[in-house]
Amino acid sequence: MVEIKPFKAVILNPELKNRAEMVCPVYDTIDASLYEKYSAKRNNVICFTTRKEGARENEFVDFAKQNLNRFFNECLLIEREKRSFYIYGVRYKLSEEIMEQIPEEDRRETYFAFGLVALVKVEKLNEDSILGHERTFEANTQERYRLMKECGMIFSPIVAEYNMPNHDINRIFEDYLGFRRPDLKIDEHRKPIVDVELNGARHLLWEVSDEEIMDKIQHLMKNKRILILDGHHRYTASHRLSIDKGKGTAYTLMTLLEGGDRALLLLPWHRCVKKCHMEDLWTKVKENFKIESYDRSMREHEMDSIYSKLRERESEREHGNEFDVRLGMYDGDKFYLLRADERKIRKLAEERGEQVGLDVISLHEWIIGEPEDIVFMSSLRDAIKKVDSGDCRVAFFLKPLRITDVEYKAQIEKKAFPQKSTLFLPKVAEGIVMCRNLL
Q1: Which tens digits make up the pLDDT trace of 375-416?
Q2: Dihedral angle at the C-alpha atoms of 158, 163, 167, 171, nearest 10 degrees?
Q3: Domain spans in the chain, listed from the N-terminal domain onward
């Protein structure tokens, strides 16, 4: 049983006029160039949310504590007076490069997702009500643990999903705010306490302190199970803090999204391999896959072709064929559709006790292994550019999973996907809603 409760949010001071310049993307999406961009602004929250590449963990934590104290002392951060729930709205559009990966029937001009921001009682992952689906790494968990413990703060909410076929909580939000998504109509009496744009997406935060509404929300969530979409390392760190007596928290900060929300999207991370011996790679491909090749002119004229080929299996899966595994590949010369040997896929599934995610599993198991020089790309076009520029030797394209696949992996198979198997949109931003670590 999930236990949620209201809290006093820490936010950027509403009296500040430049709050959009103070927020940044979530820490684990920041590379060296993005860090340089956002850290150039002295009052950007990146100075306590994200470690600079090359900085030691101790240096980062000390730097974060100093800047966090400065933000409070200079009244850049404030804590709200009432314990409340919060509505986190993200209104966004997709680039052409991302849109082409989505089936036409799911393409929309504007997406607008609502999330319930609340404190969620921490329990051991995958033991009862809180499920995860991604592999975690100790170094990443340890960094988040140290940061939360030393700073006494949770800097951004973990994103998780729940199932609610009647959309009750989202309907409560729309009734409370007085509009239906994807439209946005701000009521003068219920203005958001945060309203900023980041990379073309509008991030809004409304406070809900009405006791009757909060009681109703808690009741609706009472018997739910939730699945973490984004933030596995932060959750693992929170659990570690919860058993670190006297120094941690029994609750962590989450944004809870309805799994059936049409604005919640699941996309793949494509793989670009920097260095590999192509002769050996082709040997592995030929041992395990049937190969169809396509002229590179597809790049200009038929970008949808790779995805249409990958999507062909969707109808087959609906008829019970879970073992039709397909990958796209580009080597700078041609595009290829790789179709796995079904007998080998069945054997792999039996050996691992897994039937979901066999595309990405077979790619790592049979072709690329787990090299450190993989570049993960959300855009197929950007992955192609990586190969054409010579930065990478070969790119592999994956079909998106379905949210039901992720739920099956966590609830039934009780397994973890390989690193970066799922890209959920929308992403929350750092600096929208925070809270103090509470015992």
Answers
A1: 999 888 889 999 999 999 999 999 888 888 999 999 899 888
A2: -20
A3: 4-264+425-436, 269-399
